[in-house]
Amino acid sequence: MRCLNFLPLILLIILSSKVLSQDIFDIESNCDPQDQVCNKIEQEFVNAGKIISNNLILNAKILVELIYEPLDDDTFGQTTPVLRIHDSPDTVQRLYPTALLKQLNITFEPDFVDIQVSINSNANNSYWFPGDPDIQSTQIDVSELALHELIHGIGFTSTWDFPEDQKFINFLTPRLNGLEDNGDPEDPIIFDGFFETVFDGFLVYIGSPTRNFITNITNSINSFTAKGTEFDNMDALNSKLLETQQQNVELMLTYATTKSSLGFLPTGSQDAIILDTSNPEFDFASSISHVSQDDYENTTEFLMTPHQKEGVTLQAQIQQTGNTPGGGIGPNLRSILGTLGYTINPNPPNNTNSNFQ
Known about the structure:
Helices cover 25% and strands 19% of the residues. By secondary structure, it is α/β, with parallel strands linked by helices. Strands 1-5-8-4-3-2 form a six-stranded mixed sheet.
C-alpha cells in the first residue's frame, strides 16, 4: 500500500489550461487532450466532486487545480488546500480552507484556486478506473483516490509540524504566523502567533479518561511572547519558545507519534474519532491528518485512512462495509465535515456516482 498525502499552503500559482465545470466543483487540469489516462483521472475528480456535493449542501463554486506530474514513487497523490485566517466560533483565529469560507459566505482575499491536487504521472500502471476490466492486486481505484484528496482539500487537514528551522526536529507547533513560508530562517521575523486549522481546533488527547483539547496546548504555546515581538531569526524565536514551552511542544510530538493518542471530537459527541498517530517518526503528510488505519480500514470510515487498499474498488468497499449511503463518505466523516462548518445533507443517495463498477 502506498501513501496518500496532503500539503497545505497559503498561496498557489495556476499551471493548468483546461477547465471542466460540473456542479459545485470546477476542475482545472493540465491534461493534454490526447492523454487518455490524465483525462480519465480528471473525470474521476469530477465524479468525486459530485459525491461530495451529494453529502453536503454547497452554495459556492470550489475551484480545483489538478496537476498531473511525477511524484515520489510511494505517493499517488497530494493535496494543497488554500488557507485563510478566520475567527472560529470560540473567537480563536484559525486557518480555514477557502472552500469552506465560501460556503459560509465569508469575505476574504480570493486566490486563483481553492484546492491544488497533484497526481503521480509515473504510476499509470497502478491506476484502475470504473469501466476497466477487473482490478488487479497492484492497482488502486482512482475514484477513491480522487474522493480522498478532495476531502483533504475541503478541510480534513492539520498544520502541526516541525518548525521551519530544521535545527529543531524534536517538537511540533502549529503554523507560524499562519504562513507556509516565513522566508529565509536567517532573516529577522516578527511573531504573529501559531495558527491551527479549523480541523485542529477539535483535536483531543484520548490517551487518558480526561479528554483534553489540543487547542489548549496551542493557547499555551502562543503565550510565550507577545504578538509583534521581533526576533533576530527563526533560531532565536524557537529558542525563546523552548524556554517556557518545551514541555508542551515536545508533548505534542509524543502524542502525534503514539498510537491511539489523538482524536477528532465532533460537536455534540462524546466519542472521538481516532486519528493516525501510529508512525513513530512523525510524517507531516500522513500523521494526524488521517484516521487510524487499524481502527477504520475495514469499516464505513475507510476513505480517510492513510493507505489506500490495492486490488479493491471503491464500490466494493462500500458494499463490504454495509452499503452505507454517502458514496464512500461514512457517518463519522460526515460528522467531521459538519463540525468544521459545512451543512450536511441528511439523506445522501445510496449510490452517488453512476459510473461505479
